[in-house]
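Objective 1b of the project was to move from sequence-level analysis to a structural picture of ligand recognition. The entry below was assembled by the postdoctoral researcher (A.K.) and checked by the PI before modelling. It contains the amino acid sequence of the target and the SMILES of the bound compound, zinc ion.
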Amino acid sequence: MRQFCEDRESIRALRGVDAELALLAVLTCRGVKPMSRWEKPLAPLHLAPLHRLGLLTRQIERTVRSGAAVVETIFGVAPAFLHLYEQRFAGQPIDKSAETVRVEGFLFGYPPCCIEQYVRKPYVANGLPEEAQGLLFHWACPGCAVTPLLLRAYREALALVESV
Ligand SMILES: [Zn+2]
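Corresponding predicted holo structure:
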């Protein structure tokens, strides 16, 4: 595990913005997620702790249905994933099509089985305790083989975020 994912000062600074942002940063830094999206712009002051954790960042302009522009912040260890996201989504309206769900799911490190289940029928009862499902950024498919492994990594990341 990369040592600088443990930079407590940076994690604390991100937690000061939002605990979920800090959790995403740790998960991404550790490679559990290839990249992550924060659906807001971040000021340089708040980008700095992401950079200190070894993450690359990009601000991506999108539009919403009303035509208004919104800025998202994406971050990851590998430039290729940020580039793929930018190529596919920069300047594009925010949408929830099956295609988008598949591309985002791939880039954000969601299990393929969960992505396909979500596309067929979202939020199917999966038997996971509410606490476990609440930790995840994807909706687990029933009987998922991958999610229990991810949950372990998520719990370790959460414990780090809560300890700083
Ligand atoms: Zn699954």
